[in-house]
Amino acid sequence: CCSTAAGVLRELATPVVAALVASSRRGSGGGGQGGATRRRRGLSVQVADRAVARRALVEHGAAFLDRPSGAVPSTILTRNRHCNILSAPYGPYWRAARRNAAAGALHPSSLRLLGGARARVLGGLVRALGSGAPAGESLHFAVYSVLAVMCFGEGVVAELGEARLRAMQRFQREILLALPSFGVFVRYPRIGRFLCPSRWRQLLALRRRQEESFLPLVAEVMRRKRKAGDDSTFTSYVESLLELRVHEEGGRKVTDGELVSLISEFLGAGTESTAAALEWTMANLVKNPEVQRKLRHEVGTAVAGGERVVEEVDLARMPYLKAVVLESLRRHPPVPFVLRHADGEDAAAVLGVPRLPDGGATVNFLVGKIGRDPAAWSDPMSFEPERFMPGGEGEGADLTCTRELRMMPFGAGRRVCPGLAPAMLHLEYFVANLVRQFEWWEADGDEAVDLAEFRGFFFTIMNRPLRARLVPRTAM
Ligand code: HEM
Which of 60, 364, 417 to mutate to test ligand 1, by most ligand atoms within 8 A of the CB atom? Predict the structure, then answer.
């Protein structure tokens, strides 16, 4: 029935749908949560038109609220059993988990309480770079460290120590690299383990290691909480998860399996995306010395001739910094596509077809293409932060896409990335301080900056990790 429906769709497609790709792949539903059921995967529709994207995600968002099953790391790793925010079907559990993150650990008021921890991570990063550590890997570890503090609290991370934190980060990478080979268990949930028994054992071992890595840290968070009482002002993500109740499901707590998936998502989705964006931004600053010079001038003006570290409060006075980060996100969005499941008449009408097949369709919004659309951006492939300055075509860019959709690096609509605020804060904070501390020059030979992309399972990262010749500007 899928191929028939695909044929119908292909014939009826209008120009607003950039491409309709028939897919014979079927996914199983697996168990839904909170009474919601997952649908089988049938067709895949790709949207590269920003007007259609906005109509679908913002104006008719209710018809595009779910994600296709098996499209998200945690659904693969737990075979759809333990959802996190990204993978949860639209429903009570998703609402509770998302609200908890957005109003808690990811809220600007929580981020403000972490100024000291951020500065300590920056200090470590500057020392590492100053002693010649590779740029790409060092940026990545700095972002992971900040996310770990937000997740478990600074005391727990300090006790864990750098070596174990680095091991956790390596393990996260290992999982990301292994994920594509586990698709078979989502497509064939009943017989997958018999078809590929050794891969099945590998999957179980990875998930077990994830549990063994996170659950003792959760216990440590609880122990400290009991000891300190309610004195501390900052509430870590894990603390908030332990307090979370899904009221529409009888006030139940989050299960251990969900806890592990939610923590893994927080560290994984938060680090890989932000670190990739940071690396792309610094790479473009190496490639564009004039942009770097202008940015350094702005930083110097904002913080008394560059005499002190840039703090969160200073960032609001740096429009060019924001323009540099936005241009990097437009040109190199770390998440190159947004996946949603669509079903029903409303979704069909938005996509310009009379109906969708039984089971609905997977809709793939092409974030990269939308941000580089020549109809929206002049010379879209070049790196020009000026376009986001007053009078430029991107002035007042709306990252949530509520007013207008010209780029969508954080997605759009009700499932827009809840990490937008911390991501922008950390990008601006690290970029400003890194150009204050160092001049970033192109290295020679094999270490020269290569802007070629590597498309991973979920993220687009630099094909070759960033290397640069750093010249310290102030005594460290
Ligand atoms: C530069 C950094 C980041 C980029 C480019 C990015 C991008 C995205 C995109 C494109 C989506 C899909 C949105 C949609 O379907 O409309 C998403 C979802 C999500 N992101 Fe981010 N993200 C970033 C940082 C973060 C951070 C720091 C966190 C948390 C620590 C985070 C957590 C999430 C979660 C939980 C979702 C799922 C939302 C839902 O399904 O309701 N992201 N992100």
Answer: 417
